């Protein structure tokens, strides 16, 4: 630092009322939507895994994951009615997981372009 320059630890005062168009708000919204889609798909995938591994349904954590997965996949229950129970669970909970991922990531990408 040259000797004659004054030390300014902070930026000079800016007009805080001025609106910036740097896209930070859109990026945050896209990230939030992207994250919510990932969390929803994660719960659905976790329930499929716990079901296929025959986890103890009396366990509090397993019950919580099942409840969240039922809520997230409530609109898609019994789309597929098969005799094989494992395949039915994979399809009825896997379909909403894929849809949440596709929609969430697609909309987030669209928001980032704004």
Description:
The structure is a single chain. The protein is mainly α. It is 62% helix and 0% strand. It is built from 3 helices and no strands. Helix 1 packs across helix 2 (60-72) and helix 1 runs antiparallel to helix 3. The chain is elongated, with a radius of gyration of 23 Å. The model has no long low-confidence stretch (mean pLDDT 86).
> Which residues sit in consecutive blocks of at least 5 with pLDDT less than 50?
none
Shape: elongated
Secondary-structure-derived class: mainly alpha
The overall pLDDT average reads 86
How does the major sheet shape up?
Answer: none
The tally of strands reads 0
Radius of gyration from the CA trace? 23 Å
What's the number of helices? 3
Helix content: 55-70%
How big a fraction of the residues is strand?
under 5%
Give, in order, the helices and strands: HHH
Termini separation: 40 Å
Which helices and strands, and how do they pair?
Blueprint: H1 24-52, H2 60-72, H3 85-113
Helix pairs in contact: 1-2, 1-3
């Amino acid at each position: 630092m040259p000797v004659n320059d004054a030390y300014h630890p902070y930026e000079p005062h800016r007009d805080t009322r001025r609106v910036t168009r740097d896209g930070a708000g859109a990026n945050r919204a896209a990230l939030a939507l992207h994250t919510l889609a990932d969390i929803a798909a994660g719960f659905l995938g976790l329930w499929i895994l716990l079901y296929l591994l025959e986890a103890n349904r009396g366990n509090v954590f397993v019950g919580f994951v099942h409840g969240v997965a039922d809520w997230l996949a409530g609109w898609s229950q019994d789309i597929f009615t098969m005799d094989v129970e494992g395949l039915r669970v994979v399809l009825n909970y896997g379909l909403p997981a894929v849809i949440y991922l596709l929609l969430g990531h697609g909309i987030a990408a669209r928001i980032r372009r704004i």
